[in-house]
Design goal:
about 150 residues; Transcription Regulator spoIIAA; 6-stranded mixed sheet; 6 strands; about 25% strand
Length: about 150
């Protein structure tokens, strides 16, 4: 299952999909994000979490431009509780290259890092390795493990 989200000008701002082979939900955010983009895309991700029942998220912000900090209050208060209720357990987040994107995710981590294992990474390889480690722990323990 895959969804692609575009802004009114037809520019893609998110591709999200359940990657069955790796057993995670991959989110590729791109460009500049408006509050509407953040909400629309996040609800699309939530839909995939609910349909797939997959607890592992891999978010790639390496193609994101600028800040998305304006969405953090909504993400913290509305989306994160819904995603947790839907079964999201592990969140690997590859940071954007720019200072504004990095500040946005660091703010998000401060807000929700105590409620879910949200790990921040500079490189995709490190995020993938961490998710695989969490999957191995889950397989060993027969289900998601609370790291909090």
């Amino acid at each position: 299952m895959r969804q692609q989200f575009q802004n009114p000008t037809g520019t893609t701002f998110l591709i999200t999909e359940f990657d069955q082979q790796n057993n995670w939900i991959y989110n590729n955010w791109q460009g500049l994000l408006t509050m509407e983009n953040i909400q629309q895309g996040s609800y699309g991700i939530l839909d995939i979490i609910q349909q797939s029942q997959c607890p592992y998220l891999l978010t790639d912000n390496t193609h994101l431009l600028g800040s998305w900090k304006h969405g953090n209050d909504w993400l913290e208060k509305v989306w994160i509780p819904q995603a947790l209720a839907a079964g999201m357990t592990y969140y690997a987040h590859v940071k954007a290259p720019g200072v504004f994107g990095q500040a946005s995710v660091e703010d998000m981590h401060l807000r929700v890092g105590s409620r879910l294992p949200l790990q921040l990474f500079d490189e995709m390889e490190d995020a993938v390795a961490w998710l695989r480690e969490m999957q191995a722990l889950d397989a060993k323990n027969q289900g998601p493990v609370s790291l909090i």
